[in-house]
Amino acid sequence: MPVIEVKNLSKVFGRNTRQTLKLLDEGLSKSEILEQTGNTVGVNRASFSVDAGEIFVIMGLSGSGKSTLIRLVNRLIEPTEGNIYIDGDDLSKMDKKSLRKVRREKLSMVFQKFALFPHRTILENAEYGLEIQNVPKEERQKKAKDALEMVGLGGYLHQAPGQLSGGMQQRVGLARALANDPEVLLMDEAFSALDPLIRKEMQDELIDLQASMKKTILFITHDLDEALRLGDRIALMKDGSIVQIGTPEEILVKPANDYVEKFVEDVDRSKILTAQHIMKRPETVNIDRHGPRVALERMRAEGISSILVVDSQRNLKGYVTADDALDARNQDIRDLNEILKTDIIRVNKDKAMNDIFNIIHDSTTPVAVVEDEKLLGIIVRGAVIAGLAGEGEVNLDV
Amino acid sequence: MFDKLLDFVPSIPIAEKTEVVTDWLTSTFSFLFDPLKEHFGNFMEFTTNALLAVPPVIIIVIVALLAFFITGKKLGLAVFSIVGLWLIYNQGFWEHLISTFTLVLIASVLSVVIGVPVGILMSKSKIAEAIITPILDFMQTMPAFVYLIPAVAFFGIGMVPGIFASLIFATPPTVRFTNLGIRQVSQELVEASEAFGSTGSQKLFKVELPMAKATIMAGINQTVMLALSMVVIASMIGAPGLGREVLSSLQRAQVGTGFVAGIGIVILAIIIDRFTQHVNTKNN
């Protein structure tokens, strides 16, 4: 039996929400409904189930309804229609008291902006969930300490949240959620407010933690990379509806429609950027007109130790090194063909940056970018890294 | 001709009706007002007398010490308190000072006791907010003197009607700021509290009120200041204190005495204001 099962869950914000649902049934789009009724469709007939120990990621752009959906799961937002089963019990039909009980014992939430209580210390924050259940002080402090220990914050018990960095604050958020040992963790863009390096670190840590604790995790994100790293399965949302549910592999390989395909395609810049985006203008000598002296002079002027050799049609011939050119000059050799080396790596201008990264890693010389035989540019190692880093994290909200 | 348009009904007897209602209230609830006046009057007299029984030197020293510690061991307010209070004593206004202080203290405490829960109610219910907001507007914009009239009707003259009038005049800021403070608590914190299964009162006491504390304290500071200003006006209906000195100086055109009594009020106002402000910043 799945731990979380969501059936036909809908949320419409506004008046006469039931009627709006009928309009949805008639096939009107979210924007048409907004125009006609002034109501906003938050979530439209979402159905999915999450098994025990699974990380289920819900991904979508901002406004796709993912944050509404996760709040429907613990009823921070009241659903307009549909059911939420936690361990088989229908949350949507529960009275306040039973709902509180489920929230206290089974569901914990981690928030995008951490939502730590600034007037409480780290320890008191972590204790909160147990405190409101009236767990005796010693016991709840012990559990809270254990949870903080688990996320590596055992030494910060009596600090105020404001004194900690973002990453550490979110660890506290995680510890607070883990302290009452819930079955389900609801994580609402939990790592989105962190900077990229810390985010990766937290993702890794969550994976490590998950290996031992085996919680059922519902994770919301707008970042496909994050979804692919964390998710056992991923649900993609658009305009309040779930467009596709599948394993990361399935989402990437068999996108259900154009929307998913576009989403997936845009995700990684290293897959979009090609050689021509990061190449530089090369220094060259013309084999038909220049000899070793010119080559040497150019290299000296540019401060480089090798130079590419082309012919008058700019077809790439190879390269010469400064050492060889010097020898050739001393021996009074005039023809560059004598010292030409041809073992240069060539890539087509449309080669993906991802692939170039592997090539250039093993290469001691610059990589030449060509179209047919013609030299277009060169790529030096630094440019690949700059190309990857310079574009930064791929944020799909942008 | 156009004038007649406006005269389509004769003058509505609002003033007369108000009097009828007030009379009715007075006579109907006299069983409530009279003992209230008596017991409350006794209590206030007792408080004033208790404070007067303490030698002024001791009070000045205590105030100065409190000022010193409350401002984070700075001398400014402490020195000001010593000099200011001594000056009031020196001018022979000590008794009046204590009377005024008692009035302000009790009016403020009552305002807070009433205002904070009403503010909480407003923050929790849109309907309550819609009903209470215009009442607060009314209370604050009606000239303060007007409250003196029903106060006299209900409670006669003296300290108790003074308190009653101050209460009406000074409570709104506490209500408004409490409402505002709670509504300003970030949505995510409220959600966090709910997501962990807090009950309504747990949410209120463990998250909302602590988060709203600074704002509520700012409201209380306003309330205390308004109570002080009203206590002066209330001297017109026989409330004792520095205000009465100002009033009698006015009636007799004694510029000097009026000025000195006025200075006394200013000194008291500054000390109370700094005290309530520092309690606030200290808690942050």
TrEMBL record, chain A:
Claim: Cell membrane is one of the keywords in the record: yes
Membrane topology summary: Peripheral membrane protein
Organism whose genome encodes this protein: Virgibacillus alimentarius
Chain ranges of the ABC transporter domain: 23-264
Keywords from the UniProt entry: Amino-acid transport, ATP-binding, CBS domain, Cell inner membrane, Cell membrane, Membrane, Nucleotide-binding, Transport
UniProt cross-references to Pfam families, sorted A to Z: ABC_tran, CBS
PROSITE patterns listed in its UniProt record: ABC_TRANSPORTER_1, ABC_TRANSPORTER_2, CBS
Protein name as it appears in the record: Quaternary amine transport ATP-binding protein
Residue ranges occupied by any CBS domain in the UniProt entry: 278-336
Subunit text: The complex is probably composed of two ATP-binding proteins, two transmembrane proteins and a solute-binding protein.
Reactions this protein catalyses: a quaternary ammonium(out) + ATP + H2O = a quaternary ammonium(in) + ADP + phosphate + H(+)
Primary localization class, coarse: membrane
MF annotations from Gene Ontology: ATP binding
Classification via InterPro entries: AAA+_ATPase (IPR003593), ABC_osmolyte_uptake_ATP-bind (IPR051921), ABC_transporter-like_ATP-bd (IPR003439), ABC_transporter-like_CS (IPR017871), CBS_dom (IPR000644), CBS_dom_sf (IPR046342), Gly-betaine_transp_ATP-bd (IPR005892), P-loop_NTPase (IPR027417)
Record localization: Cell inner membrane
Enzyme class: translocase
Highest taxon above the source species: Bacteria
Family, per entry: Belongs to the ABC transporter superfamily.
EC nos: 7.6.2.9
